[in-house]
Known about the structure:
By secondary structure, the protein is mostly beta strands. The protein folds into four domains: 25-210, Thrombin, subunit H (Beta Barrel); 213-343, no CATH class; 352-464; 469-606, no CATH class. The chain has eight helices and 31 strands. The strands form four sheets. A six-stranded antiparallel beta barrel has the order 2-3-4-7-6-5. Strands 11-12-13-16-15-14 form a six-stranded antiparallel barrel. It is elongated.
Amino acid sequence: MTRHRMGLLPRHERRRPSRPAFVAGVLGALVAVSATTAPARSAPGGEAGVPDTECPAAATVASVAPEDPVTGWTVSKGTTPELFEGEVLGVLEDAVSPGFPLIVARLTSPEIDRVGGIWSGMSGSPVYDSSGNLLGAVAYGFAYSPSPVAGITPAEEMQALLSEPPTAAASSPLATAAGRERIDLPGTMERRLVASGAATAAEFSGGLTRLPIALAVPGTVPKKRLAATLERMGMDGVRVFATGSAAPSSPDYPIVSGGNLAVSESYGDVTFAGVGTATAVCDDEILAFGHPFAFTGKSALTMHGASAVYVQEDPNWVPFKMSRLGAPSGTVTQDRMAGLLATQTAIPSAPDITTSVTSGTRGRTGTTYIPARNWFADVSAYHLLFNQERVFDAHAEGAQTSSWTVKGLRADGSAFDYTRADRFAHPDDLVWSAPDELFMQLFKLMNTGERISFTEVDASSAMSPDYQAYAIKKVEIRRDGEWRRVPRPLQVRPGVTKKFRVTLTSDQLPDRYVRLPVTVPRSAVGEGYLTFRGGNTYGGWEEFWYDPTSGSSFDKELAKIKATPRNDTVVADLQVARRSGGAATRSVRVGTGAVVDGFRSASLVVRR
């Protein structure tokens, strides 16, 4: 039997189309690149590793000129910012979006030189001019190869996000578009950079793009499923690396200017988080990244500190920083074109899923918090999957019983909840079965057109390596005191009850009979059909039991989930025309104690 798996469904959110890239002009003549060193700005906060309490003044783009020396801070290992230096190459007007320029500079440091250029995870690294004013944040680089050439988001644009900017904010309103996905360099700049050895002509042909977000994900996520999940969520501009969990009990890493900063879609047992750099700490407000994370505008994702493990060089693409995430330490409140705005005053409330899984003497209970609403179905399913993998410790045959209680709030603020209990079995890979079903239920409830929010999921699974399942072998009808083959068509009268016997067969269990009495509705007349099926037919997925004509309101979808047959039942469904119009139906279910597959049907004629 072919099984679909979570994350391979059609996307429920359409990604934004790419916008054409163009550059309006270059401010100032460009000169050959040299290793000019700027006067070093003191470490953030006056001492490396100490949070900034003074928000830096912003340098204006109009004050930037080619050959200006710059300094900056970023982290390649641990939590202490390290100095880098560089030189301004020029300014690209309207590069990111109309009225949104980009400063281009060439940077150098022992670590930048070691890995060949700036890296994924360096987004947000603050860059200062020779007077110590904040020039902006490293945010853009070449798409397909390492290079020391960086696109810097101006500090004016970033400080416009602050509730109280320390200097005059940019005159333009907050951006409402994602900006160009590719920024082409003018021919003059490209030729001079190629001559300097900063990159090859082929590498420059790809232009500048936002530095890929260093996305921390659980190390056991299959690549194909992860790719499908990221595509559905519009998270294609990422560089994935495996990480451990980030939980409330994790270390509380400090967040300082030039230090690590992470924003999580989920944390706990299953952590999905983008890792970048804090640009400025302004009292309780923090600017970071210099480009969007998910570009949601208003946001309520969770902020974390982090400790860098290593910057991995990559000769074929952009190097990337691997990090360990710390405990939640604040909320990302704005996710805009110019970067992120976060606050350390509160941690966002996040719905959670908690599971308790047992298999023999092994057991585990774990929790994942999911501040990202659109990720709730995916992450909940991953959470159940990973905990089942940890306890069952194999992708192998087996059987299990699982149940979960789902709670949430509807658009009008009223609460909803339901509990689903079922039995699962698989001849090859048990651990996927229950997560698939949980994903499908949550996914459908999220996509009825009503904006709901989940508040919690409590789940439990008892797993066994003993695979047991039935299949429907044949169906018989009781006639003249004997069990006989069902005639085609079966002719019946309204109001009568017919007795049927379903023979179940199994390689692991003795064959058994299940008896189902089916009563023909008194209003029935004409042709119809009678079906017998196992509850696990089509993998037990609810969508195959749904009436496609019944609509997709939240009430109807929730009712369908509650009414879906368990996988360990045999179901007889009768449907026939009704004299007053429409269809007359009957359904009978009998439990078996083991998962049942298979399908049999017969045509039906009701004569008065």
